[in-house]
Amino acid sequence: MDPMAEIRLTFFQECEEQLTALENGLLSMQEGDSDSETVNAVFRAVHSIKGGAGAFKLNALVSFAHIFETALDRVRSGDLVPDSDAMKLFLRAADALADLVSASRDGGVEVTAPYLAIEEEFNALIGGGGAAAEEDEFAGLEFRPIITAFDEPPSPARNVFTIRFRPLRELFAKANEPLALFRELARLGTLTSACDIKNLPFLDTFEPEDSYLSWELRLETESQRAAVKEVFDFVEGDCDLAIELAQPATATPPPQEMDITAILRKVREEAPAIAAAAAAAAPQPEADAAPKAAKAAVQPTIRVDLDRVDRLINLVGELVINQAMLTQRVLHSSHVRDREVTSSLEELERLTREIQESVMAIRAQPVRPLFQRMSRIVREVADATSKDVRLRTEGEATEVDKTVVELLADPLTHMIRNAVDHGLEGPEQRVAAGKPPEGTVKLAAAHRSGRVIIEVSDDGQGINRPRVLQKAIANGLVPPDAQLSDSEIDNLLFLPGFSTASTVSNISGRGVGMDVVKRSIQALGGRISISSAPGQGSTFTLSLPLTLAVLDGIVVTVDEQVFVIPLTAIVETVKHEPSRIHHLGDHSFVLRVRDVLVPLIDVGAELGVRGPTSDLRSGVAILIETANGTRSALLVDNIQDQRQVVIKSLETNYMRVDGIAAATILGDGRVAMILDVDALVGPRHHDWVAAETPLAKAS
Amino acid sequence: MTVTILTVDDSRTMRDMLRMALVDAGFRVVQAEDGLHGLDVLRGEQPQVVITDINMPRMDGFGFIEAVRQDAQYRAIPILVLTTESDDEKKLRARRAGATGWIVKPFDPAKLIAAVRRVAA
Amino acid sequence: MIEKSLNPQSREAEFVAFRSGSLEFCINIMSVREIRGWTPATAIPRAPSYIRGVINLRGVVLPIVDLGVRLGLPGTEPTARHVIIVAQVGERAAGLLVDSVSDILSVEDTSIQPTPDVASQLARMFVRGVIAMDGRMISVITMDNVLPAGMDLEAA
Q1: ipTM surpassing 0.90
Q2: What is the mean pLDDT of residues A651-666?
Q3: What percentage of chain A has pLDDT greater than the value 70?
Q4: Share of chain C above pLDDT 90, in %
Q5: Segments making up each domain of chain C, as ranges
Q6: Chosen CATH of A367-545 out of 3.40.50.720, 3.30.565.10, 3.40.50.261, 1.20.1050.10
Q7: How far is A221 from chain B (nearest CA, A)?
Q8: Chain C residues within 8 A (CB-CB) of chain A?
Q9: DSSP alpha helices (H): ranges in A238-305?
Q10: What separation in angstroms does the CA of A577 have from each of A255, A589, A602, C131?
Q11: Which pTM value belongs to this model?
């Protein structure tokens, strides 16, 4: 790749990081954090984006970032103490900046009304100083050509400058070097110089750090005075300098003529001596500089292409399968039953597991960036619905597989929108209900028993159950006389096609309902559940696997076919003596587990592996719990094994199959299906309520 | 002898751009991500020229320059500051801290190399 | 031959020819990834009858299409002598279960004739054209419609 294109990629990657830092900092400022480092970090983020944008001539981005930065600089210097309106403006500007970055990346930037409006507001905030500063900035952007003498054809109009230059000690203190300046002058044309040493004192009064030499230089050049003066830019104020345009003919010969190389040599000889003397005379602050340096050690990191990591993960997946196959083959071959072989195989299995876990850890990412994206969603929906909303986040450092984080973005966005749009009341309504006018949406993540739990909760009105039920009846999802428990009503929200908003607002009503959310969570091997208290709010709880690559399951057989049931769904295996099975007609059976009746699902018949079995008495029943907490029993022929399996997508080459979560490859090299327990027993078809109702009565 | 240049900038983009331009011009480049890191690298690498950003976490450019100038061993190293502001106040402050010169961002490689040449012994 | 190859309109392509029941088919060699013997497949629940199941192809889960059944012919119970042609179908890969692979054919574009009108609607979904050669009639299979269109089943 062209190096500039590569740097451009880096720039946009870095922009994402800066935008995250920006939003983080602004949010913590909004929370009342006035630490100068927080403000600095916020300023730096915008400043960095501007700097990079300038290098790629992304002018719209530069100018927006500039005005933003100007405002932040006022905050940094203490001239501006941002009130809550100013903070809101900053946050909106951060969102706009993010949009502008994306637009710049994709190459289509139009300076449209939202940006201009924000710029206007900034100008009002900082008293109109922004525009002037901006002009200044663009002056800075302008490319000034470097004048080089060599490439230009000789011109008869040569200028001859006489330059008197006396460096002051400050010049040397800043590590400027007459030698380097002369060398630059020499590039402009023909330079002759004379060194005046008459100010050099006797050794007894010699100050190693002082400056005693001066030069008179004669430069014959095609360049103009400005170019000559530019060479002395860095030393302006640290030297006595006079540049005069002289006539070539009348130029006075310098007092002690030397050619430039001799001068250079002389200066080079002198410089180390001066530096050494200076070093001897200087204070020694090294002692306290050392611990600082020690602190500077940064945790070393490397950046790796995701492709490489994924290839490694695939290979390790193969290794796990291979290890299982090897173990199975060795243990099945009768002649090797050596204790040492067995223990080596066990060691191999342990190592394989460890490698796998370490590799998976590479993909683990904190949910923080995901949560941060949600704060923007909250702001947008709050603005659109004129609600006051605060997003609180917890456990942002919780790590999950990168893919899980990515695939969570859409469902989470939808849930957050719902929470603000439907969950929270408007300020007046809240005050009337005795709540603070500002609503709170909380987003929390935590690890719990090998899974990631993410909760989205609000302190709003809670689920309006009578309305949900009424709507479900109206839509024919529930019979009019249905008696449903609170939790059953809440779960109606997940039914396909259900939407609570009686008027579809343009925020939540984007053609997706909670059923889609549920489906996406299930596709991730996750579960979603809901709880709600009228007047106090609702909580959606997501439970997700840490990784999409492996799961623990039990291997079962049904009609000689092998299936894997995820361990997370399993409560226990249960005895199912004939006396515990009750026939409800129409191939529906329930199993009594202790004193509770649960539906008994014939996996073979449900998946169409075989016809409904008449003999429910053989086989094993496995009690499972679905995401919404309802229990069922799955009837299988046999339980073979409990093991960790590598998840293989069925969709890569085939498609999604209802009731099947994914495929895996077992120790014998054959493919087995992993059951999607929720889909298998969940609200299947539209007889969900019909199947559950008798139960509710029976228990 | 190859001239070694230390660049100190918290922005990866800027570090990459500096590296590209300087390496193309035949310099050896070592890099640091902020002032403290810069001091660390400075001690290990003994560069002939330092280019530093101003706005950085942990230790900013001003702090970095002051620290370098206080160290007798490094007080004669030319330091160029990178600045987006044509703002004289910042330039002045950098010079007061001991900066040798400055480079206005965004820079083009020719301008950068010219600035380096103007200070490199 | 020389004349023909000079004709820019005419391009030659290689096809893998195979048998399914009494019929002969061929598929462009560019879409064939490999040919392997039959291994027992794991049935996929709720799959159409022409999907034999999935096999493990070096860690990839590969669906197997019984071509005969797909074309509306009676299915046969596969044995070790049956063959799976692993083919690329757009982004996806699939195995075609066939009786045997018979030949590699070099065929001019121009010698592929359009599918005769008498062919059934089903056959027309998969047959791009026919080649008449040495008294044989070989149907050129296109893989495009061989796998079920994803959305159909998902909606069910």
Answers
A1: no
A2: 86
A3: 78
A4: 22
A5: 2-143
A6: 3.30.565.10
A7: 18
A8: 40-47, 51, 53-56, 59-63, 92-94, 147-148, 150, 153-154, 156
A9: 260-281, 286-295
A10: 119, 13, 15, 64
A11: 0.48
